[in-house]
Design goal:
four-stranded antiparallel sheet; 120 residues; Pantoate--beta-alanine Ligase, Chain: A,domain 2
């Protein structure tokens, strides 16, 4: 299917795929960080995130895991916490025309930061 927005982008297909990946990862991070979680809803939240990103343009696949050890360790008196970037492990595969890239959202301990980056 032709891309009606193509004329607005002055970049290569790979650069466009990377741009699209950034949108997807930023959406996941800013939409879901802060959601109340506990061990009982991790899988359903992972699936909800995957399904929501897969309906966006140019997404070939997506995977999301939320670290259950962090969730279990940090649960307070009310037995839930809120999702944070350090708990997320996300991968999206984006195809724009003939360019395919994989991008990630992962917590990098030595940086103490949930980093979004392009992989190989």
């Amino acid at each position: 299917m032709p891309d009606p927005a193509e004329k607005y982008f002055n970049c290569t297909d790979r650069e466009r795929a990377i741009f699209e990946a950034g949108i997807k990862l930023g959406t996941i991070y800013h939409q879901y960080v802060g959601v109340p979680i506990n061990l009982s809803n991790l899988e359903s939240l992972e699936n909800a995130i995957i399904e929501s990103v897969k309906v966006q343009p140019f997404v070939e696949s997506a995977s999301v895991t939320i670290d259950p050890e962090i969730v279990e360790k940090k649960q307070g008196i009310y037995k839930y916490i809120t999702l944070s970037g350090e708990m997320l492990n996300v991968e999206v595969k984006i195809r724009y025309k003939d360019a395919t890239i994989r991008a990630f959202l992962r917590y990098i301990p030595e940086m103490d930061y949930p980093l979004m980056f392009v992989g190989d």
